[in-house]
Amino acid sequence: MALTTHTRSRSGSGSGSPGPRQRVVERGTLGNGLRLVLSPDRHALVAAVAVVYDVGTRTEPEGRSGFAHLFEHLMFQGSVGLRNAAYTRHVERSGGTFRGSTHLDLTQYGEVAPANALQRMLYLESDRMRGLRLTEANLANQISVVKEEIRANVLSRPYGALPWPRLPSLMFDTFPNTHDGRGSFADLERATRSEAADFFDRYYAPGNAVLCVCGDFDPDRARRGIERYFGDIPARPVPAPADVREPERAGERRACYRDPLAPRPAIAWGWRVPDPIEDLDGFLPYLLLAGLLAGPDTSRLVRRLVSVDRTATSVTGRVGFLGDPFALRDPTALVFQARLPADGDPWRLLDAVDEEIERLALDGPDPAELDGVAARVVVKQLERTDSALGRAERLAVFELQRDDPLLLGELPRLLGSVGADAVREAAGRLTPDRRSAIEVVPGAGTR
Asked: In this model, does residue 19 exceed pLDDT 50?
């Protein structure tokens, strides 16, 4: 195993021998294709391991909706050398914690524990990468668990998970981008152990993953542990990237649905934004637009719609339908939602939104306003890497999707350098003819 060492300061500058505010990042690849990122920090007191697989809800083929999320559950239900629940016991007895999460374009797993437990964490992740204990009982049990999560988090909650998944199904046309990634009950109930085994063999191959270690560890010892536990996992063919391309289209799309649990009207709307990986410079202004338009109480839409017009009781906005905006491939969107008073008119509200965006596109943001939003966005991004596990997860994602984990250290500088003209031009693309909007009508009826 050959690893290349890179050094970059937290602010994105600096080279050579690491100083007190610099991070060393080593990258490499095992013979079976598993990519590695090591980032030691002897002041961290803990060690974290993250494994990110290049499979998400948009990877699922038709007829297998929900498989990515289902596998997140199955990965904790026993593996080659571990019985059901043994993984949990080993992490907790080491004084550690763990988590897993499914996203549109990836699935990630991780543990953080006292530094002396690193070898144990490496073994635990390698054992389930080597193979799962896929039994009929485990599969049936976790299908039931996933269905109950859907009932609790979507079907039994007012507004469900608005804007996802209803707005994407209006905004896009292809199956990867429009289907409900939590999974239809019918697809989940049809799942067989053989199909689950095929899904694991295809998408959980070493060459389809990135392993990252962060925190207090000795790099030489970590390399030996990685070779010992992961090096002999057999290589398998790496699947071609999922084709999630979606052509741009003209013309506004509007729809509505009735939600018997919603106490008041609501509306969600959004626009396509540039490719976050291939066009990072074009993408970044939309992160600032989300804050300018629907950030704190002083943001433009909150001030206009909630404080002045009183046509909304709340307004929120973000880039991306789920999770981290820097863990997304194209296509993605700038999305907003507003809750309205009982007699509110969602479409009249959108007229006011258009007025505020047109004003921003014409005049641009005030410098102080832009600086404040940029600072908040930067802080939010830094908070994601404040912990050893958070940093490990993001480095792994950046390696997986961008082949550049060092870009993580550049984000504060890149976000801070987005100028008023770039934001103004981005606002100019948020026109009604490129927008999709879905109204939520409260009251009894078909959901």
From this structure: no
Helix axes 67-74, 193-203, angle to 10 degrees: 90
pTM of the full predicted structure?
A: 0.93
Answer whether residue 380 shows pLDDT above 70.
Answer: yes
Structural domains of the chain sorted by starting position, each given as residue range(s) with its CATH number in brackets: 2-230 (3.30.830.10), 253-442 (3.30.830.10)
In this prediction, residues 1-20 reach a mean pLDDT of 46
Q: What is the mean pLDDT of the chain?
A: 92
Q: What is the pLDDT of residues 233-244, one digit of tens each?
A: 999 999 998 899
